[in-house]
Amino acid sequence: MNNSLFEIVEHTNRSIFLTGKAGTGKTTFLNDFVKKTKKKHIVVAPTGIAAINAGGVTIHSMFGLPLRTFLPTTERIDQNLGNNIPDLMVHFKYRKDKLKLLREIEIIIIDEASMLRADVLDMMDFSLRHVRRNQQKFGGVQMLFIGDLYQLPPVVRDEHILGMYYPSPFFFHAKALEGSNFITLELTKVYRQTDEHFLEILNAIRDGITGDIDFETLNERYQPDFDPKDEAYVYLCSHNNMADDINQKKIKELGGKVHSYTADVKGDFKETQYPNDEVLELKIGAQIMFIRNDTSPDKKYFNGKLAQISYLDEDEISVILDGSEEEITLKAETWEQKKYSLDDEKNIKEEVLGSFKQFPIRLAWAVTIHKSQGLTFDRLIIDAGKSFASGQVYVALSRCRTLEGIVLKSKITPEVIFSDKRVSKFQDETHANSKIEEILNSEKYDYSIQKVIRRIDCVWFVSALESWMVMTRSSKSVDKDQSQKLYITLKSEIENLKLIFQKFERILLQKTQKFLKGEEEWQEVEVKAKGAVNFFFSNVNEKVFSPLKDFYSETKGIKGLKAFNEDFRVWLDDLEEYLKDLKDVHLLETPLFDKEKDAVISMSINKVPTHVLTYQLFQDGKTISEIARERGLVNSTIFGHLSKYAEQNLLDKNDLLRIYPKEKVNAFEKVFKQSPKENINDWKAALPADFDYGEIRLIWNYYLNLKK
Questions:
Q1: d(CA 578, CA 587)
Q2: How far apart are CA 289 and CA 292, in angstroms?
Q3: Cα torsion for 528, 529, 534, 537, to the nearest 10°?
Q4: Cβ contacts of residue 695 below 8 Å, gap of 6+?
């Protein structure tokens, strides 16, 4: 099962919910998958603690999401209730490095998905579609959800508000998953328990089928006055204060000296995400449990293993492991707060923002249900009273290896067994364990060709061009004639590329379907895919990237164009990445780019900027009109070029008189000295009608800088 599971996640784009009863190895699969996968991935979780334990980051920090409830509507809503879609969009103005990262991700793994709210998942969907310029679900990113919906549910303050738009707060009711080919795969082999009868009881409790629960056998473990003597038991509690009270009472009863161990916290590590107490207060004889697996080759303890403190000093702790006489000396462990980023090769890397170093133990006479998730115990004391929330009875009982290891402080009755029909309905409808091989065989090839199509997709060029043109029109310092001319040329080229892409897309998909039906050889698909990749590389480089880069070279470093160039550079960087990605495209294991068509793709500007060429010709004694004819430009563009030199005080009075008749110079100078204007429109109104805007800008720059 696990190998087939890996294959379907790795070689398809199916979004999958990986579930399983307690102790079936969900966390083990997660750890193995991130080690083996070739897909660019990130690991996120709904809560800080879950994220730290999964080796990832929180969903909210990754996507910059607001903490308030999200309602998927464009209609105005009471701001006290939450955010709507327009409210959400302002949160997606990510830094350049975050944009690149989110565009490179192929799969997002969400651990502890049972605690993921539907509205949070929808916010992720909006973010990814927006950033990736892709209106597929999650912007085309594959989603892998891991968790058990029969355990702890999402925490929702105002479920009635969510209920206005969602059937339940569970992630599977997100709008983003409606109409998707989403499937559920279930790990079925339980490694924690081996007693079949105990497993039957646990399964019936998990499913909420009270008629199938052997309450008689279960309540044989009812011992209300039980007091553990020599053996180590853990008291499972519903709330933090109950667990803290028990632990503090027990440690006080020990007597002796309290030893304190303060965590070493470095960098950015939020207190709400501390995986352990910042200050551990311990005594010799205290019952503790490990909150991490032994990372040494010895593997002497695991997450949830009990022990007793045998020795303490300022910087050393020794314990005797439960069930043995062996004493071991502990070392402090480090938890890291991480951030995902891209390296120079566009591989996703983990960057450590902060760390929390502490001994991997906590007092363990009592622990909460929430903190027990994922842990395994040999002996438990459970009080499954009315305070237990939905799913907590199952979580509590399933922590223990055996029924014999459980002591019940209160009887378990049908009233504390909860069944959520929404969960069982969802899993029944999406369950696909029997279809894994069928799905893999039918989707592997289609998935690979879809990856190629996504790489050559140039439809987003259209909106990028229009956004660029809006920027040029709103900028006072951009040469309007030159930008308009470039826009018209690019619009034609980009519209043509869009049409060709759409044709290629149809052909590639048709050929893939013919192959799957046995009507065509895979080699024919490869040939067409190679043609598409190399066509778009050559044409986008020559007809889109290079002309834009040339224009950028003329505006780079010009006063007043800093903000414009920063936004312009984002598009150029995107085009550069598009072209570089085409060089690396594979169809299954076959590279598609023809190395003979290779060209250096870089934003480095080596050519002489166009305004420099203009100035050189002017220095050679040529007139404005002569320069314009020689360079194939209009007079206004030449005025714009020379205006830059006037701004830098590189033109003298003789230069000015070569450009303007003496009468014009005198006319401007008179107004400049008597009543200088604040903007070019005011200058136009104050000067003789034969002054055009280009002439005004140049001479104005000359006198402004002469004055300085």
A1: 17
A2: 9
A3: 140
A4: 639, 660, 664
The three-point CA angle 106-127-163 to 5° equals: 115
Going by C-alpha positions, the residue among 592, 242, 267 that lies closest to residue 392 is 242
- Helix axis angle for 662-674 and 693-707, nearest 10°, is 60
Helix (H) or strand (E) holding 237: strand 234-237
133: left (phi over 0), alpha (psi -120 to 50) or beta: left
Element (H, E) at 574: helix 562-583
CATH number of 2-191+422-436: 3.40.50.300
Fold equal for 2-191+422-436 and 610-707: no
* pLDDT for 603: 66
Give the contacts of 591 (CB within 8 A, at least 6 positions apart).
584, 585
Helical (H) or strand (E) element with 664:
helix 662-674
Residue pair 356/275 in contact by the 8 Å Cβ criterion? yes
What is the H or E stretch that residue 145 is in?
A: strand 142-146
Under 8 Å CB-to-CB from 551, ≥6 apart: which residues? 482, 483, 486
Q: What are the E-state strand segments in 380-513?
A: 380-382, 406-408
Instruction: Give the separation between CA 126 and CA 110, rounded to whole angstroms.
Output: 17
Residue 304 phi, psi dihedral angles, 5° rounding: 105, -10
DSSP 3-state of 105: coil
Sketch the domain layout of the chain as residue ranges. 2-191+422-436, 196-418, 460-597, 610-707
pLDDT for 387 beyond 60: no
pLDDT tens digits, 28-85: 889 889 999 989 999 999 887 777 777 788 898 899 888 888 888 888 887 777 888 8
Half-sphere exposure (CA, 13 Å, Cβ side) for 123? 29
pLDDT score of 390: 60
For residues 14 and 443, is the Cβ–Cβ distance under 8 A?
Answer: yes
Non-local (6+) Cβ contacts of 181 within 8 A are 14, 15
Contacts of 257 (CB under 8 A, 6+ apart): 283
Say how far apart CA 100 and CA 349 lie, in whole Å: 13
**Structure-token match 């999964």, residue found:** 54
Phi, psi of 484 (to 5 degrees): -65, -40
Architecture of domain 610-707: Orthogonal Bundle (1.10)
Strand partners, 414: none
List, as one string, the DSSP characters of 20-67.
ESTTS-HHHHHHHHHHH--S-EEEEESSHHHHHHHTSEEHHHHHT--S
State the burial class of residue 213 (Cβ atoms within 10 Å of its Cβ: 0-12, 13-18, 19+).
buried
User: Do residues 210 and 416 lie in contact, with contact meaning Cβ atoms separated by under 8 Å?
Assistant: no
CA 686 – CA 682 distance, rounded (Å): 6
Point out the least confidently predicted range of 1-5, 590-594, 614-618: 1-5
Per DSSP bridges, beta strands 107-110 and 142-146 are parallel
Query: Pick from 574, 550, 392: which is nearest to 482 by CA?
Result: 550
Torsion, Cα of 565, 568, 572, 574 (10° steps) = 130
pLDDT score recorded for residue 97: 84
Neighbours of 652 (CB within 10 A): 11
Q: Write the single-letter amino acid at 362.
A: R
HSE of 36, CA atoms in CB hemisphere, 13 A: 14
The per-residue pLDDT for 108 is: 96
CA neighbor of 180 nearest in space, from 133, 148, 141: 141
Residue 281 pairs in a beta bridge with 260
Residue owning tokens 């002017």: 618
What does the buried/exposed string (b/e) look like for 333-371 if buried means 16 or more CB atoms within 10 Å of the residue's CB? bebbbbbbebeeeeebeeeebbbbbbbbbbbbbbbbbbb
Q: Alpha-carbon distance 166 to 500, whole Å?
A: 41
